[in-house]
Automatic annotation (TrEMBL):
InterPro entries: AGP_Transferase (IPR051678), Kinase-like_dom_sf (IPR011009). The lineage of its organism: Eukaryota, Fungi, Dikarya, Ascomycota, Pezizomycotina. It comes from Epichloe festucae (strain Fl1). CDD domains: APH_ChoK_like. Transmembrane segments: none annotated. This is Aminoglycoside phosphotransferase domain-containing protein.
Length: 238
């Protein structure tokens, strides 16, 4: 496999592709939004270590997102993009949804974000009312939140079934970047990026939407990564 750099991918960027990361390509085609996994031939070289940047659960996360959005749309009134298609072609998974108009919550003023937070709190309560005794997403795949996933290199999680339905549905990546808002009404038009979602103990849902930034601890915030990882390890099938 020939080494690939981000510059090389940018030079070969396809029509309608507006962003490329080390894990995904993003497209806006008419009224549709497309997110696809990178093919192995597109895995990039880490400029520091010289090794391939292999996306963790790269295809599984998109399959999980598709199943989760369908599940949420069917069982709640939480606004999610309409799923149009999810398929695999030439070693890449494509997730196709409707394109949602609006602005990202992280672009709003602090006062405006407070208004949106109130609506999000209601949606989180709805998610907590969805319960199960089986870990993971509707796809049947257990994908820990990013802040836990990066603490271990395992490629699969097999969890014990719970004795009661005490697991709740968690988004697991609920940052201000993943909430689209109508700038005039401040109503949420869509919650995006359900790649890490599924049934987990309620502690897994981080309230990262209460400030701009990623879905990990920053600026002295309490870090729960080790605690959540241990909780998963203690509940594995042996």
């Amino acid at each position: 496999m020939s080494p690939v750099t981000s510059e090389m991918l940018e030079a070969r960027r396809e029509k309608d592709c507006f962003a490329i990361t080390q894990e995904r390509k993003y497209f806006h085609v008419g009224d549709s939004f497309v997110k696809r996994s990178l093919r192995p031939s597109e895995w990039q070289i880490n400029p520091v270590h010289g090794n391939f940047c292999v996306p963790r659960f790269g295809t599984e996360r998109l399959l999980n997102e598709a199943a989760s959005m369908q599940f949420i749309a069917t069982n709640t009134n939480i606004p999610v993009p309409k799923l149009l298609s999810c398929f695999e072609d030439d070693n890449a998974v494509y997730l196709v949804t409707e394109y949602i108009e609006g602005v990202a919550m992280n672009t709003l003023s602090e006062e405006e974000r407070k208004v949106v937070e109130e609506e999000l709190e209601g949606h989180l309560e709805t998610l907590r009312n969805l319960t199960s005794d089986v870990w993971g997403g509707p796809s049947g795949i257990v994908i820990p939140p990013y802040r836990v996933m990066v603490k271990t290199y395992r490629s699969e999680w097999k969890m014990k079934q719970r004795e009661s339905k005490d697991l709740v549905f968690c988004h697991n990546d609920l940052s201000t970047h993943n909430v689209t808002v109508d700038p005039n009404t401040l109503k949420i038009t869509a919650i995006h990026d359900w790649e890490y979602s599924g049934f987990f103990p309620k502690e897994f849902e981080g309230f990262f939407f209460r400030r701009p930034g990623p879905s990990v601890a920053i600026n002295g915030e309490s870090n729960d990564e080790e605690m959540l990882l241990k909780l998963m390890q203690d509940n594995e099938q042996r």
